[in-house]
Amino acid sequence: MSKSLRTTTDRFTSLPDDVAHKVVSSLSLEDVSRLSVVSRRCRQLCISMPSLNVDVRPYLQDATKRTRLMNYVERLFSLRRGVSTHRLCIGWFLDSSVNDKGGGEEEYRILSWLHNAVTCNVKWLVLYLRLKRGSAFSLPPCLIHSTSLESLTACVSINSILEFPSYSTIELSSLKTLDLWGVRIDESFGNWVSTCCKFLRSLYLKQIKETESIAINSSSITKLCITSMDYKLCHLQVSAWILEKMSLWWEFDSANNRTLQLSVPMLRMFVWKGNILRLPLTENLAALKSSASILFRSASTLTSQNLIRFYCDFRNLNHPIPNLFDKHSQVSYITL
Amino acid sequence: MSSSSTTTTTTRLLMLKASDGVTFEVEEAVATKLGAINNMVEEEGSEDLICLPNVNGKFLGMVLEWCKKHANNNTNSDKGNDEVNKWWDKEFVMDLDQNTLYHLLMAADYLSGTELVDLLTEKVASMIRGKKVEEIRETFKIKSDFLPGQEEEIRKKNSWAFE
After folding, report:
1. What is the CATH number of domain B13-142?
2. Which of A39, A140, A211, A266 is most buried, taking the most CB atoms under 10 A from its CB?
């Protein structure tokens, strides 16, 4: 509270740092840049804000401004030397870069911001990128080496690929939430999760690309969401001792050679969307605990000749069982 | 403006005492929307009188008014509620003068009313957004305290934001 006693008596700069930082963090960098010229205290607030928001959207048509925004971000990072960055949010459209060939330079700059953030002990990182059709963006390995990062959300536009770095570290990660869209992972991903991510609670792998096989062994995750729509995923194996909620959207053209293995003794909610023909499930799901519930988001995919039985106990459900099974489907459920 | 408890009979009532001695009788469910009070209730358990020496009665009253609206609107859970809350929040901050906004924000921060702090900091941000340097200075009555020549230099470095 002592800060309110300083000589400046105005109603903005006399706010305590954490409150004033909240204000500054919700401004665009252009506003921040202007605010930093107002007074010394304002400038200090702008330089020391713990959360940075880089958003290219207002400058999509303006190449000069876009470059100057990038320069400003770099200037901020250099002025902030030593200030920890709790949160960095980057929204960038690499597909529409007008001021260089192919967005290579902009991509390089984004990578350097990510490095910078990791050096400044970033805890929250949100990355939204629009890429050219068919192109890929590789997340830098420093992200999985970071020991401070607790939440990572990375998303690329449809028709492009987010490449997750290969596992090459024994550094223990602090990640609690990992949310990846359009991601391509290699087989080392499962190793990394089981070896390094001891605190990971929520794992979201959405729109997985060009990945044939996923194996997840974790003793910490409680929420898992996997969606695969490119027909490439063949094998999915999940062993998670305390997993409570899982949702799976798995599309494929032919069920040949597809396997799904679940070892999830504490699972309480399983939401399923997509093609589930001929998957060897009966056995696995029979292990569900008594309060488990299985929900289908699209019952139409269940009209198969294959009888799949779901063993689960509906006694503990508060809601009446929704009419999920259409009359042509041979899917049945029984109460244990 | 102590709250009446005519509608509900089952919830526990808390007495909140402001720095100027003004007291407010509030339902527990309303007061615990404030993190600081929630902690006190959990820690001290049976104590029904809570003294808040850092908050003036006028602003405590306003904070509690906000809490009451939000606690009420949370109980009946239909989809229109978000809209109602948003509309009400807009009304709440619309005509706040700077002095009230400042003290309210300090009170909300002290009481750990996170959502209210978010609402009020957003209001402050809206007073800065899109404005020129001189306009910001005028809005908040801030005096430039840069050394001679320093402001021009900083202005030059931030020139991208002035076009």
Report:
1. 3.30.710.10
2. A39
